[in-house]
Amino acid sequence: MMEDHNQYTDRDLSWLSFNYRVLMEATDPTVPLADRVKFLAIYSANLDEFFRVRVSSLRSLISLHKKKITKRLGSDPQQTLTQVLEVVDRQQNYYNRLFQEQLLPQLQQHGIILYQQQPLLEVHRLEVDRFFRSTVMAYLQPVFIGSWQSAKGKRRLPFLDSHALYLAVILRPKADGFTSQRDQVEESLDGHQFAYVNIPVDKLARFVTLSVIDEQHYFTFLDEVIRANLSVIFPGYELLGSFSFKLNRSEDIDIKDEYRGNLVKKIKRQLKKRQTAPPVRFLYDGSIDKDLLNPFTRLFNVLPDELQAGGRYHSLSALLKLPLPAGPDMVSPAMVPLLRPELDQQESMLAAINLKDRILHFPYQSYEYVLRLFNEAAIDPLVHQIDVTLYRIAADSLIANALISAAHNGKRVSVFVEVKARFDEANNLQWAEQLKAAGVRIFYSLPGIKVHAKMALIKRRPQTATDKPTQYAYLATGNFNEVTAEIYADHGLMTSHKPLVREVKKVFDYLEKQKPIGKLRHLLVSPFTLQDRYLDLIDREISFARKGRTARLTLKVNGLEESVLIDKLYEASRAGVVIDLLVRGICCLVPGVPGMSETIRVIRLVDRFLEHARVAIFHNDGQEEIFLASADWMTRNIYHRVEVGFPIYDPEVRTEIRQLIAFQLADNTKACLIDQQGTNQPIRNPEATPVRAQYASYDWLKQRASPESEPGIRESTAPS
């Protein structure tokens, strides 16, 4: 799994290790059953995206000049792809066994029966038959392989949708079958003929709910409804077998020249090209005989290394929508988002921010306060300007609606919309058009770079002749998205600290007018100052360590891959700096290697909420500095994205961040250590008090919000 000198772990293999950690939650008997099913679904969705993006990228690299690419990357993409496919095969086998041998039997023990190949009860057979004839059949498109001929006799390739599921069908004409159909079918093997039919998951739910009998809840796959009626779909044929398959296509958008022409039009063209992009994976039921598989792989031009054996069912991400009945031990206890009394006691959000910096920790605390901030700004007669960056927003975004309201109320609203946010391009374009129609000034992606920063700027006129204009900033680690705020663990800072807000304005001036950012004392902004500032902060810890003083740093990111920063962490470790890393996803740093990284510990935390925040804490000889950021320590974030890191100055806010990170470092329930091989080693100590960071964080914030423990208002100690 290591590259030369064991210095770095391959990023794709590291990501697969993370996804396996997700799968580990599905195996954990202490996790409520419905949540285990959810983690199985998340694993499936993650792997699909991995093939559509990363495996696609590896295949593209392989097609280029091998020696040059290997030298540039430091690894052979063909070798990496081979390793990736081997790991995926092992994980896929385990995934299928987990579903069939553990989760399905346990669901049955809870009175939930998911029909597969077993005979249906008579009442359910009749329901399935009626449902097929009344609803399903209208959406089916059966196709014989041999019918793919053009009018001139030339062979045409059928089109398979990347997000669709299909059933391959092996048939033999009955003696009294339809001769005209038999004549047109060319593909045959020992008299077998081949066809396929779509499973219309784009039109109908994947799981069909059947009648409850004796308090037992019954469901079946849409796949099985179609299998049970193949004789209706193919009259005149004897059914010899069927198997499911799906095709993943590349979905990595490649814009050749962002500096010329209309970028929005180019994005729209690329979105259309996704639909017909080259295949990267043909996933099929591994129980099928290869001789019966071959006609389909020939038809769809599938290469041998694009074949992947799976189980009877694919795209089990649909399990997220399986309508499981509520019951004891089925789901985790609810965590109702907490209110913040100190904000509720103020007449408005802007008034509260005037008093001191405010922090919100999602999803533990309510996202309602962010919505209130924008809604109040939209109708405040003194607010005259609102600037926002939007990277991923909800399909029915309340934030966007507040911005439309602000524009209707005569505010100067400027929104920077990132139309290159992968898989959100279409949604972002749609919102950009709606906002523009409402009078919002829209700015699109910068050429050659994505804007990943999450920030807003609100400008307010003075209330009286003696007052001064006031500016407010919202800076966050997560997107302006009230939907993901319910499941992503993030932080959002609201501040009126003048030097900080002035620098936020500089970033917006760069985005809107391409004005040089200039010197920054507070914000860390990539691709300009963020990396250099982090390097300087690490160097300071190195200096303290070499002087024999306490030197420590704690970093929390989603991904750690950028080699310059990793090498600096290695240098810090060699100097004796104690380094704690919380890395949820990709981690290319190899911890615990004597003489290179022996003082570095890497923890991966996967629980009911997705850890998404980016936090950096530097001991600084006792004068601790804390930064939050939108940026991971990945090459793309450091060099190819506009990202913003911001310091935390307020003592109360610092206390909260420090404590939440402490819970994560102490977690011995959901945390794993990443070892030198990049594998997940659960942290378990039977003698220690159990610590589950996400639950501990919620309980601590809940207690802190109670009236008797309400913190007093303190002035910021930020430098000017």
Automatic annotation (TrEMBL):
GO terms for molecular function: ATP binding; metal ion binding; polyphosphate kinase activity. Its EC number is 2.7.4.1. Residues 127-322 form the Polyphosphate kinase middle domain. The keyword Magnesium applies. Residues 349-515, 523-694 form the Polyphosphate kinase C-terminal domain. It catalyses: [phosphate](n) + ATP = [phosphate](n+1) + ADP. The active site is at 452 (phosphohistidine intermediate). Keywords: ATP-binding, Kinase, Magnesium, Metal-binding, Nucleotide-binding, Phosphoprotein, Transferase. One of its GO terms (cellular component) is polyphosphate kinase complex. ATP binds at residues 46, 488, 584, 612. An intermediate of this reaction is the autophosphorylated ppk in which a phosphate is covalently linked to a histidine residue through a N-P bond. Mg(2+) binds at residues 392, 422. Pfam families: PP_kinase, PP_kinase_C, PP_kinase_C_1, PP_kinase_N. Its cofactor is Mg(2+). Residues 8-114 form the Polyphosphate kinase N-terminal domain. One of its GO terms (biological process) is polyphosphate biosynthetic process. Catalyzes the reversible transfer of the terminal phosphate of ATP to form a long-chain polyphosphate (polyP). Belongs to the polyphosphate kinase 1 (PPK1) family. NCBIfam families: poly_P_kin, PRK05443.1-1. This is Polyphosphate kinase. The lineage of its organism: Bacteria, Pseudomonadati, Bacteroidota, Cytophagia, Cytophagales.
